[in-house]
Design goal:
Shape: globular
CATH class of the largest domain: Alpha Beta
Oligomer: single chain
Number of strands: 8
CATH architecture of the largest domain: 3-Layer(aba) Sandwich
Number of helices: 15
Radius of gyration: 26 Å
């Protein structure tokens, strides 16, 4: 090895050490901030509980604390900030339990001990509600916006596993990721989502309906064509990968398939590193047709026979469309329904009015389609064992368009 090569390798090792130290230092500072805010919230709650008139006393207490702390330490101690700290302690009562942090006096050693805490079981096993160094104060403030404890646990687990930034976490919550995943699962599947996060064992586990593509900044216009959506997705590939979920690796776009001189071009191809299979995505504007489904069957069969390597699992086909007929999808796909999926897309986050309208539509559809199935189940099992429909956020109305 030449002196120049040795110097280059030494420089690389020093850079690695320094970058690792900077990352650890930043994480330690963030975690110390989280611990301090939790402990401050604890002190506020305990002081409020000692007041004769809790509500009035608490309001006056926060105002007095804010004025004094702002003089001593500057910004960061407004009344609203102190309210967040109080809510943080109430929302995460066991956050520092394992760090023996339930002491009255705040000291530096206590924070340092908490900073060194590791999440139980490592990256893949995340215990919600317990301090995790991967989550900043902004993460926890975002999580507190979700009042349903099981849903909050889901977002906490997924945020740690996938390394979401606070902004990415907020985006996933605003796009109702939990509800979109829960729609395709039974009661036990929803409980598993809340308790364990998203398990990726089957093709169905990676599919959402609808997909929210607000990051493309495209109008909901009938003049849209597939090529424009495809180009926008490629330009915003990082955001699209976040929406698809963990495990997707981009392979290419418009990859040509040739069959006896005829050429075909699936829009986007990915490989899922956890499921170990190819994922072929085709984009459709307007209402999905049986011809679109047949074309996707061709793509999936081709990848299974000609592209997939030994050890790969069956290819997943995903059709993203602005409108679909679920009955047509079921009858066309038949035994391919666990390998090929049709999901709607939309270019905006749903409004509260949209959600209410869709909930009513879903309930009406359920009452029309399943009474016979429910009656059949009722004769076979006690009614207490019949799976109830999941009350989650339903599909939102998607953009309508024309075919290219």
């Amino acid at each position: 090895m030449t002196p120049l090569q040795s110097q280059i390798e030494l420089l690389a090792r020093i850079r690695h050490i320094w970058e690792a130290a900077r990352t650890q230092a930043a994480r330690s500072v963030n975690t110390a901030h989280v611990c301090a805010n939790w402990l401050i919230g604890q002190q506020i709650v305990e002081a409020e509980q000692g007041g004769a008139k809790r509500a009035a006393y608490g309001k006056a207490l926060l105002k007095a604390l804010s004025e004094q702390l702002s003089v001593e330490y500057g910004a960061g101690f407004s009344v609203s900030a102190l309210q967040y700290m109080r809510s943080f302690f109430l929302g995460y009562p066991q956050l520092l339990a394992k760090q023996h942090a339930l002491r009255v006096v705040l000291d530096v050693e206590q924070i340092q001990h908490a900073v060194r805490g590791e999440s139980p079981g490592g990256r893949d096993v995340v215990q919600p509600g317990v301090l995790n160094p991967s989550l900043s104060w902004t993460h926890y403030r975002t999580l507190l916006k979700e009042e349903r404890q099981p849903v909050r646990d889901f977002y906490e687990i997924e945020s740690v596993r996938n390394g979401w930034s606070a902004r990415q976490l907020e985006r996933q919550m605003h796009s109702f990721l939990f509800e979109r995943l829960a729609k395709s699962r039974d009661k036990q599947g929803v409980l598993a989502l809340a308790n364990e996060g998203q398990a990726l064992n089957r093709a169905q586990d990676v599919i959402k309906d609808p997909y929210v593509l607000e990051f493309l900044d495209l109008p909901e216009s009938h003049r849209l064509v597939e090529s424009r959506i495809e180009e926008a997705l490629i330009n915003q590939l990082q955001a699209f990968l976040l929406e698809l979920g963990s495990g997707f690796a981009f392979v290419g776009r418009q990859r040509r398939l040739t069959l006896d001189g005829d050429h075909f071009y699936p829009d986007l191809v990915f490989y899922h590193v956890k499921l170990k299979c190819y994922v072929v995505i085709d984009l459709k504007v307007g209402k999905l047709t049986h011809g679109d489904l047949g074309q996707m069957q061709l793509y999936v069969n081709y990848y299974d026979r000609e592209v997939a390597a030994k050890g790969d699992n069956p290819t997943i086909g995903l059709l993203l469309c602005s409108e679909k007929n679920d009955a047509v999808v079921r009858y066309v796909l038949g035994d391919k329904s666990e390998q090929i999926f049709a999901s709607r897309y939309q270019f905006a986050l749903p409004s509260e009015a949209d959600l209410r309208a869709e909930i009513r539509r879903e309930l009406e559809q359920f009452e029309r389609d399943v009474p016979a199935q429910v009656e059949e189940l009722a004769t076979a099992k006690p009614k207490s064992q019949i799976a109830k429909p999941i009350k989650s956020r339903p599909k939102s109305t998607a953009a309508k368009g024309v075919k290219k």
